[in-house]
Amino acid sequence: MLVDTHAHLYWESYYEDLDAVIQRSIDSGVTTIINVGVDVKLSKKAAEQTKEKLRKVNGLSSYSTIGIHPHESVKYPDDVSIHKDIEELEKVYQSLPDQIVAVGECGLDYFFSHIDPEYLPYFAPFLKEPLKDRESWHEKLTPDVIEKLKDSQRRLFQAQIDLAKRLDLPLIVHCRDDRSQNPENSEAWDEILNMVGNHPTILHCYSGLPKTTQKVLASPTLLFSFGGTITYSKNEYLREAVKLIPLDRIVLETDCPFLPPQSIRGQRNEPSAVLEIAKLITDLKGVSLDEVARQTTQNAKQILRIK
């Protein structure tokens, strides 16, 4: 039995064949799926889909989460707007307290050079003049603007940390540094670790450098979550991290429909791909697939407090 600790099965790309996706998941031994929210609307959608669809599938255990992705921070110009949506997330939790098992996906993403066009209209408060098109964005990424964007993410993330503490739920954290100019940059990871402290946390799609890995290892309440990115040829440093990290600190994920493993790169990802991740970890650590499945499942169940 395997657990996908991070899926987004409410995404539009699953509308036509979700039943087949779920069956492939079960057939591959992935029998527990965590349906992760990324904003208020999609946290509600994840909760509804999990309750009305996923929890009615024989052979599948499913849960959901509530959270606001750091990319969404540009939609929150002040603390009042943050507080309003944190209250909305809490209402979702209170409606399904036995199903909702974590706060997230939340965190910090400091890779600002890639901006989805849908977010462009929200950048006006951060800029001295209107943003006319995507191409002009890079010209306006001054140090002052970048710091404003980072501060917005910090405030949104801190509000969700506070929510997790209030609800006694673990965090599922997204973290991404901009290493385009400095391959050793760990600013976002350093801030994440400082902000979460010893609160139980799953470090989604772990991408920390060796120095960050050592810091995380020193905090036993934090778990490393690995998905398709460990199969990419450029990420040898992550495969080395897998070898180093004790199996009792690892959980598995897909982040589907995103980040498919190398074998299906460029295609839609789905929960069944957890099996491929588990097999790679088996090879990297020199243990059996049964041991990887048993221990990572135990880890996920313990931090998320699921059956």
From TrEMBL:
It comes from the Bacteria. A divalent metal cation 2 binds at residues 174, 204. InterPro entries: DNase_TatD-rel_CS, Metal_Hydrolase, TatD-like. Gene3D superfamilies: Metal-dependent hydrolases. GO terms for molecular function: hydrolase activity, acting on ester bonds; metal ion binding. The keyword Hydrolase applies. Keywords: Hydrolase, Metal-binding. This is Hydrolase TatD. It comes from Candidatus Daviesbacteria bacterium RIFCSPLOWO2_02_FULL_36_8.
